[in-house]
Specification:
192 residues, alpha/beta, Rossmann fold, two-stranded antiparallel ribbon, 13% strand
Length: 192
């Protein structure tokens, strides 16, 4: 989600953005215009459900169970070690020794209003910064390759410097394999 936010910020405020790094995301997920009304309705229902569930007493889990739930919740793209790292800010241990999640469930709800590919291309046309995309070899692809190729072409044309690097790993390449991702990011931030 951070990559999508940085893309939108850099395209909205090109004069304030020098560099962006996007990890395992080429662009935010787009929506076809005719599908937006149903997507908005689904999002509203999910938000209402998340708000109702957020106000109730949290569910408690033992340590092993909460680790496994976290790994499964991220579609097995996290290693156990990475899940333990995320637990530091995403869970709370209670006096009874049990754990509960502390994240706001509303962040997992699909966007109420999403952009079309055409809108995203218009944003991409505003980019002026230096841009690095790190794509995980086993990371998800949400849309047709042609859509991504077109966005990559705009990035190459509009950004001051554009780098695209593929690294072996899952969606959480930066967390599971920081020894692979960190040098690429460091070099980009240092050299460009």
């Amino acid at each position: 989600m951070g990559g999508g936010a940085s893309f939108l910020y850099a395209a909205t405020f090109p004069e304030k953005t020098k560099k962006i790094v996007m990890v395992d995301l080429i662009k935010p997920i787009s929506v076809q215009p005719e599908k937006q009304p149903k997507r908005s309705a689904k999002s509203i229902k999910e938000l209402l459900s998340a708000e109702a569930n957020h106000s109730r007493t949290p569910l408690y889990y033992d340590y092993e169970t909460i680790i496994n739930r976290m790994i499964k919740g991220y579609n097995d793209s996290l290693t156990e070690e990475s899940a333990k790292i995320l637990m530091k800010r995403g869970t709370k241990q209670h006096k009874n020794g049990q754990y509960s999640f502390t994240f706001d469930p509303r962040i997992k709800v699909a966007n109420l209003l999403s952009m079309t590919v055409e809108q995203q291309k218009a944003f991409a046309q505003n980019l002026q910064c230096k841009m690095l995309i790190i794509k995980a070899s086993a990371g998800p692809w949400y849309e047709d390759k042609a859509v991504y190729d077109e966005m990559l072409s705009i990035y190459r044309e509009k950004t001051e410097v554009f780098k695209f690097v593929t690294l072996e790993g899952s969606h959480h390449i930066h967390l599971n394999n920081p020894e692979l991702a960190a040098p690429v990011i460091f070099d980009f931030l240092k050299d460009t």
